[in-house]
Design brief:
Elements: H1 2-28, H2 37-54, H3 62-76, H4 78-88, H5 92-105, H6 107-112, H7 125-139, H8 151-160, H9 167-178, H10 183-197, H11 199-208, H12 213-224, H13 227-234, H14 238-255, H15 257-260, H16 269-282, H17 287-306, H18 312-329, H19 331-335, H20 337-349, H21 381-406, H22 410-429, H23 432-460, H24 469-490, H25 497-510, E1 516-518, H26 525-528, E2 534-535, E3 572-576, E4 588-593, E5 597-602, E6 611-613, H27 619-636, E7 638-644, E8 649-651, E9 663-665, E10 668-670, E11 675-683, E12 687-697, E13 701-705, E14 708-713, E15 725-726, E16 730-734, E17 737-745, E18 758-767, E19 775-778, E20 792-799
Parallel strand pairs: 1-2, 1-3
Antiparallel strand pairs: 3-5, 4-5, 6-20, 7-19, 7-20, 8-18, 9-10, 10-18, 11-17, 12-15, 12-16, 12-18, 13-14, 13-17
Length: 800
């Protein structure tokens, strides 16, 4: 699966996009340069996938339609393909740059060597895009049949049935289904590929500044993956990454205006297709960025008409063709323009900052940020170096502006200036969330201007005099961007592969047997369990009947809080394997147990409990409450069922011995650097035990008892940094009495995510081989005192 998603899939995407780009090129007169074909083709395929999913009966055919478009492009553009192939033999830089950009963007996944994604624990929006892409390809934009009583239906309805932009999702889903790939593993490669398509237009823009060869190559990579853009790609900002490629492509078409403004009216087709692709991917908010290109073209056309090189009638024909193509290609957006405007307005005015507690810093637009998190200010020497690189980049930008004006690259200079003006305008009138996105979309433009400063140095510096200036500036610009990206690569948190594969197997095994109550906070389960109509009481869209089972979004689910009748609508419950968690009531029996999850099924004709008791206080007071239940049992002829609490030996990490440099979080410790946690514990009896760790641990740690290694744990994350994840148990055979447990983190390495989350919240031991739930039953009328003196998770009174 890793080879298919990370290596084969981007190759297929490249073929699809180049083929579609060739088709657009053929219809527009054959003027598009080769590096622009993938981005233009991606925009065309977005348009096609939007139209097929808008006509819901055609939605399942989307993968085959986009393949047919690509095949048609290669068939009709065979001559252009041969010409491009001959040209590339002397321009290997052009072919290698998108590949290098893709490798950099997908580095955490590639070096992990397993199917995963790096947006984990950063922003759960990627779960929505996986879910939406799957739904749109299977059902199209038809939402009448959704069950809005559960989380699955609510998520789909509240996003995609409210004019939420879905252009990137339909291309993502259509292309991945062509290979039969799970969307959860194709998601990050798709984002990396879409970012790599920006390398083509970035190369052409870099060349227009006066750079060539290796200088243009370094400028292209720096422009494609500046720090903030890299951050957005890592956490799966699929809409913005797709829109970025469209924005840079429009900039190139502005620069190349002489190739198509003076030709046939069909020359407007690529510009219209790309603009429509951006609108479909980002929504009508893309208009702010598209308008910058339109304004420059309007000025150019006015100059051309006044100079007699263009007639008004021909300009109107050009505009008509472009407007018609843009209308058709983004038809689903235009047909519901009021809804699209409403979504854009809500995003622009929302007070919800998402995962941003404070606004980003404006200097981040310069492409450098020497910290693993784009949300935090660099510390210590890294802050000084960041400021120095920012100052140097800013100085290079000033040189670049002068160079562009002197070299008479007025169209490019005008577009760059308007892009900066758009960013400033958005920053003045938008919220924290939108401002951050505008910073990201503007950053490549600013970095490009800085590389224009390098072009100025190379053009103005005489041979033999100050020749070291240009290489030094290039090293600072490229090195600053690369170092910033490496810092983020190092702290990336990768999704756990095995756990999601187990969820996928559950979906296949129990498909169609929902609705299903999902007790773990993990919104990626919405995609993995999409055939079970799941409801998560701690999701942002919780089932109304079960909302009380969690105290809020992301909080743990407490089945004890359910009323006796609240669960009756759920034939299945999927819960994590965790001896410390409360088991489901007796109306459910264990159907399946894996490494990470348990599936419980409601017994046929199971009745709701008459009473549900959660023991509290001393064992003596608990016994009196059991006695009162027994009185009701005798009266109603009911039986008492109690779930025994397992024997748990708990170890508090905060009370253990560990390095002074480690920090604290909640009840646990943060293993910030290499070191060892050591804690003493005592077992009440000997035998086989399981050691359970809870927390969020991305880097590998080693666990041992009494100096004997039990194994290693790493890459076990729960998706919510506020709720500890229960990790897979480590078996050990121990005697009764005292022992010592150690958890060791080795020195930092270059492995992806080695600087990621390393929080140990809790440790406990439980007897191995214990059933998932142990019940004690007392018949009506007697024997209830046998329940006294023992600990229970819950006690229920059930009709006999």
């Amino acid at each position: 699966m890793f080879v298919l998603t990370a290596l084969v899939y981007p190759g297929v995407l490249a073929v699809l996009c180049v083929g579609a780009g060739l088709l657009v090129d053929r219809f527009s007169g054959g003027f598009l340069p080769g590096p622009l074909l993938p981005a233009v083709g991606a925009a065309a395929l977005i348009a096609v996938s939007q139209l097929t999913t808008y006509a819901s009966p055609l939605a399942p055919a989307t993968p085959y339609v986009i393949a047919a478009v690509a095949v048609a492009g290669f068939a009709l553009g065979a001559g252009r393909v041969r010409a491009f192939a001959l040209a590339l033999s002397n321009r290997r830089w052009q072919l290698s740059l998108p590949v290098l950009a893709y490798v950099l963007a997908l580095a955490p996944v590639l070096l992990a060597g397993r199917p995963t994604f790096s947006s984990y624990m950063a922003l759960a929006d990627s779960a929505v895009h996986m879910l939406g892409a799957d739904y749109l390809i299977h059902h199209g934009q038809s939402y009448a049949h959704l069950d809005l009583r559960n989380s699955y239906g609510q998520f789909i309805n509240n996003y995609y049935n409210t004019s939420y932009p879905s252009g990137s999702d339909t291309l993502f889903g259509g292309s991945a289904f062509l290979l039969g790939l799970p969307l959860i593993w194709a998601f990050q490669p798709f984002n990396a590929f879409m970012l790599a398509t920006a390398a083509g237009p970035a190369w052409l823009l870099a060349r227009r500044t006066g750079l060539d060869g290796r200088w243009a190559a370094l400028a292209t990579l720096s422009t494609t993956v500046p720090a903030l853009v890299y951050a957005y790609e890592l956490f799966g900002s699929i809409k913005e990454i797709t829109a970025l490629s469209m924005i840079l492509t429009l900039g190139v078409l502005v620069v190349l205006h002489e190739r198509w403004l003076r030709g046939e009216a069909t020359g407007a087709i690529p510009f219209a297709v790309v603009a429509a692709g951006g609108v479909s991917a980002l929504g009508v908010g893309f208009g702010v960025w598209g308008l910058t290109a339109v304004v420059v073209l309007v000025v150019v056309v006015i100059v051309e008409v006044r100079a007699g090189r263009q007639s008004v009638s021909r300009v109107l024909l050009l505009v008509g063709v472009g407007a018609g193509v843009a209308l058709v290609c983004a038809w689903p957006t235009w047909i519901d323009l009021s809804g699209s405007l409403h979504v854009a307005q809500n995003i622009a005015s929302t007070s919800n900052p998402g995962n941003l507690r404070t606004p980003l810093h404006s200097i981040q637009v310069l492409g450098v940020w020497l910290r693993g998190s784009y949300k935090q200010l660099p510390a210590g020497a890294n802050l000084d170096i960041t400021y120095a690189l920012v100052a140097l980049t800013l100085g290079a930008c000033l040189l670049g502006v002068v160079h562009l004006l002197r070299s008479r690259a007025l169209a490019l200079a005008g577009w760059l200036a308007l892009m900066l003006a758009a960013w400033i305008a958005v920053s003045l009138y938008s919220t924290t969330w939108v401002d951050a996105k505008s910073l990201m979309l503007t950053s490549p433009v600013v970095v490009l201007v800085a590389w224009g400063g390098l072009a100025a140095l190379r053009a103005r510096t005489r041979p033999g005099r100050l020749r070291w200036l240009a290489p030094l500036l290039a090293l600072a610009l490229a090195g600053g961007v690369l170092a910033s990206d490496v810092a983020q690569y190092h702290v990336s948190n990768l999704a756990p592969t095995a756990r999601y594969e187990e969820l996928a197997s559950l979906d296949a095994r129990f498909a169609g047997r929902g609705p299903t109550l999902f007790t773990d906070f993990d919104e990626y389960a919405l995609y993995e369990l999409r055939d079970l109509d799941i409801g998560g009481p701690d999701f942002v869209f919780a089932p109304g009947a079960l909302a009380g089972l969690a105290r809020g979004y992301g909080d743990p689910v407490e089945l004890d809080r359910a009323s006796p009748s609240a669960l009756r609508a759920y034939p299945l419950i999927v819960s994590r394997r965790d001896p410390s968690a409360t088991p489901p009531p007796p109306a459910y029996r264990l159907l399946w147990q894996g490494t990470y999850y348990q599936v419980w099924g409601r017994r046929p004709a199971a009745k709701a409990a008459i009473a549900h008791l959660v023991p509290a206080g001393s064992l003596a007071s608990q016994c009196s409450r059991i006695g009162r239940l027994a009185q009701i049992a005798r009266r109603d002829g009911a039986q008492i069922i109690a779930a025994e609490s397992p024997t748990l030996v708990r170890i508090a990490p905060a009370g253990a011995s560990y390095p002074r440099g480690w920090g604290h979080q909640r009840e646990g410790v943060v293993m910030r650097r290499a070191g060892r946690l050591s804690a003493a514990f005592s077992l009440p009896f000997g035998g086989a035990w399981d050691v359970w760790l809870q927390g969020q641990i991305m880097p590998t740690v080693r666990v041992s008892v009494d100096g004997h290694s039990l194994g290693s744990i790493g890459g076990q994350l729960g998706g919510n940094s506020l709720v500890p994840d229960t990790m897979t148990p480590l078996p050990v055979s121990l005697s009764a009495g005292p022992h010592r447990l150690s958890v060791t983190r080795d020195g930092l390495s270059l492995a992806p995510g080695d600087g990621g989350s390393a929080v140990l919240d809790a440790i406990f031991l439980a007897p191995a081989g214990r059933p998932a739930r142990q019940l004690r039953r007392v018949a009506p009328g007697g024997g209830w005192r046998s329940l006294c003196g023992h600990a229970y998770a819950w006690i229920e009174l059930v009709s006999a």
